[in-house]
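Q: Could you fold this chain for me?
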Amino acid sequence: MVISRQCSGQRGPRSCGLAGIVLIRPGWNIWPSRPAGYWAVLFGALVGSAVLAAYGLKWFRIPTPYDTMTLKVVTILPGVVAVTCVEELLFRQVMFRWPEQQGLSVRGVVLATSEAFGCAHLGPEFSGVSVNGPFHLLQSLYIVWVGLLFGELRRASDSWIMSWAGHAAYNMVVLFVLSRAAVS
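A: Sure. Below is the predicted structure, expressed as C-alpha cells.
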C-alpha cells in the first residue's frame, strides 16, 4: 500500500518521493470523466489488436516463450490483473502525469509513454538470457501500437482505470486465443 504525503515548500503541481517511486499529483483519475463513445471504440480496437496479435503468432508460426498447450487462462487471471495494474500505474499514471505537468502536449505524452512501453517489453532481448528473439522483437514493436491505444484510452477517458481494464482485456484475449489456437 502506498501512502502519499503533502510536500511542503513547493509551488504548482507537486510530486513526492516514497520508496523510490514518484507519486504525481493532483488526482488519481479513477473514474472516466468523458462520454463513452470514443473510448469505447478504442477499447474495441484493443480487443481487435489482441486477436490480430494472437493469430499473427499462429499464422506465421512464431513460437511463444511459454507453453500455450497447457495454458489455463482462468488460473492466471489474478496475476494478469495485478501485473497490468502495476504497469498501468507506472506508464499511464506516473509517467503520463509527469510530462503532462511539465507542459508537454497530451499527444506528446501519449507518444512518449507508448514508446517507453514498447521499449520496456524489449527487456528480455538485452538481459543475456536465451529468449526467442523474433517473438520479443515483434512483440515490442507491436506493443508500441498497443501502448498508443492504451495512452489514447487514458487520454480519451481521463482515467487510468480504463487503460488498466483495456490492458487486462488485451492480455486475456491474447492468452485465450493462443490457448484455443493450440488446441485446434
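A (continued): The longest helix spans residues 73-101.
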